[in-house]
Every structure is written in structure tokens, then in C-alpha cells.
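Record type: monomer structure entry
Structure origin: computed from sequence
Chain ID: A
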Amino acid sequence: MVEHKPYIISIAGDSGSGKSTISNFIRLYYGYENTTLISGDDLHRWERGDTNWEKITHLNPNANNLKLGDLQLLSLKEGVKVLRKKYDHHTGKFGDMITIHPNKYIINEGLHAFYTIEAETLSDLKIYIDIDEDLRIDLKIKRDTIERGYKRDDVLDLIEKRKSDSEKIKRVQLQKADVIIKIKRGSEIQIDCKKDVDYLLLDFLKKLHKELHIFEWVNKTIGESLPLVQSKGGNISAKIDNKLIIKESGGKIKNVNYSAGYSILDYKNFNIDNLTSDKELHKFLLASVKNSIYKKPSMETGFHTGFKKYVFHLHPIYLNCILCLENAEEVIKKIFTNLFEYSFINYFNPGYQLTKEILKKEKLKDIIFLKNHGLIISSNDCYDGIYYVSQINKLSKEYIKEHINSFEEFSLDWKDKECIESYSWPDSIILSDDETIAANNYINYIGSNLGTIQQLKKEDIEYLKNIEAEKYRL
């Protein structure tokens, strides 16, 4: 039993409208530990492939055990746990019986979340997601083909078959809704309220929706440039209120989009003084997304907490050719001293060591060069961040062209070049894919023509080979 009756937030909308996304935003706002999510899809009467679906659609109320849903919602409202079978969209099958416990907030998400009088009455807040139809169809095709194994034509056929049922349940629930969230193309959403609602929650929904659109664009803009990003290296983060959005560990920057490829955590909880090792950092990062939909965030999440809204940590190839030199700091001074203020940090292993070094240093500039590693840019404007990343790599390239006899552009073809074996930056030890091999060969070639390459120490190489957090990137 719970001390107070749960507050039930019911979220309805058509298939592919963004119900799960908005539900997750609300859970982030109130905290996963304070929320329980129940899905209306668990109430489907039949599994995928059943012949009954040839006669009736998923949107038809009669194809769903709404009476059971109402009874279970009532039990949760009274603080009593319930049992139900979980529907798996990947397989189209029902899984084992699971126990759903009451909580401070119950997020009741589904096609018919407050369609019945009982569900309407039990719901403290009723939200309807009203998305532009063209956008909904595009998103549904993308989701159902990538995540659920459907063919495009099959998705379009289902949409047409469900049209009549779709219009009916939309009409009924739009009339009952306390809040209508209107989603159109672009980064803005409109929220219409019929009663007083937690305005801070609605503000958070608007801000996070917009920020994720910007975050996707930033990651793709940077991530599609091979000279700026190779393989799984680097990460980009953005802050909103007390939340930090950052690439998930083991992912690629270019694969980050509105709904996948990143993690979100409460960054205000991070304190390097509470940690003493990479093992403890690893545990903290895992715990930060426990019970959420997110995977473990980047092992370098820690130092992202100490900067401005946007943080770009990258391994630009032309810059890294310079940073891996023994006299890297001297060369950096020649190129950048008269252009902007910056900080230079000697090599520390990524993860706990580098995070501690950065967070303990005072008066670090917004541009930081990391010896034998890469670049950090901090800015409250994402456009400024992109500009400085691009300019720094461009100026590094121009310096290289002026100081070696035969210059060649960096490309993936460098994976096939024969170069000296060298371990001068972390990814050269941890990763072995084509992009990393190409980058390592290029750095070795350019570096040996520019001067003397600074090899990583044997103890650092062994450390990187065995660090637990880096295994997520393999």
C-alpha cells in the first residue's frame, strides 16, 4: 500500500503520435523512482498474426480488454499492486505475467487511455497527443519498419484500415482531455489546457522537445564529418534544467536522433569528490539510468557537468595530428594564442582520471586542448560550439599543410595505408574498426612528418585495455 493515493496521468493518442515519448518526458520530470508506467498495448486481446486482426483493428475498443484496464487502474489508485502480461512489440507476443506496483504517479499510456467513463473518472490528468497526420504517418513508418519489422506498404495499409476507428477514438478523447499537446513539424509544440495544470511540467515538456530536436541536428551536423568524428569517439552534451543529455556509451555521434542514441540523467547529482576510481564512476553512471529507458551514458559524462549548456568533446583529425606531438603545446601556442583564450591539459586517461583533473582545475577556458586526446568546447550557443570545432580543425590543417612537404587529405582510404605502429591516443588502443585504423594511420603519418610523436606510456596502454567502462564501446 502507498501512503497517499497515486496521481494518475493518462496519455492518449493515435498509433505513432508520440505517447511513449511524452510519457517518458513526464517520468523524467517527476523521477523514475516516483513513477510507474502502464501501457494500454498490454490490453490487446490477441497476439500478432491472430486471424481476429483481419476482422478488427487495434484501435477498435472491442479489440482491447478495456474493462480489465479500468479494474487495474482502480486497484493502483487504491494503492494495490496488479498483475498483467506485457505485450512485446518486437515479437508481437505477450510475455510472462509481471507485477505492477503503485507509485506517487501512475502514467497510463495507450490508444484508449481515457476512452471509457471509468478511466476518465480515475484519471487526475488527461493528456491527448494531437499530431499532424502527415508527420504521424512518417514517424509511424519509421518506427514500425525499423523497430517492429513491418514493411512500408504494410504500415500504410494498416493506417488506411484503422482510419475510421482512429477518427472515433480521437474525437471522444479530444473532448475529454484536460491538456492537448499539438505536435507539428519543427522543434516547437503547442500545449492547450482546459484546467489548471503543473505549469512547470508543461514548460519542461516544451523545452525538452525543442532541445532534443536541436540536439539531433547538432550531433548529425558534427557526426557526419569524418575529419571531426571517427567511429565511436567523442561525445556531445546539452543541459536543460537539472538534466544532462549526452551520447550513450558505445554509440556514434551521427546516430543520435530525437528518440535514440543518447541518455538523460540528473547531472546535479554528480560529485567527483564522492568517487575514487573508474570502477566507482562506472557504477554511478549505470545507477544514473537505472529503471529508465536509457543505456549507460558516456564514460566522460562527469566532466560535461562542469561546463556551460553545450559541451563538444571531439577528436578532430588534423588537430589530433598536432596534439599527439611531443611539442604539441608549443605548436598550439603558435597557431591559436592570438586568436582566442584556451587551456591546455597534459594527458590523463579518459574516465575518472581526466574527469577529476578537469573538475578540480580552476578558471578553465571554454576551449580546452587535451594532449594526446582531443578537444573540449563549452558554449551556451550550439552554433558557437560548431563554429569553433570546425575552425580549430581547419586552422590545424592549414598549419600542417604549411609545415610538411607532401600533404594528403584524411579519408577512410587511410585504413589501407602502411604506417608505423603507434599508440598515441586512447581510441587507437580501444577501437579497431576501419575509421579508427584510418585515423591512427593518418596521425602516425602526419605526426612523423611534423615532428616526433608522443607515445602513450606502457602503464596507460595497459590501463586503457582493461578499463571496464571502455568495454561498452567495443
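Annotation 1: The chain has 16 helices and 15 strands.
Annotation 2: The mean pLDDT is 93.
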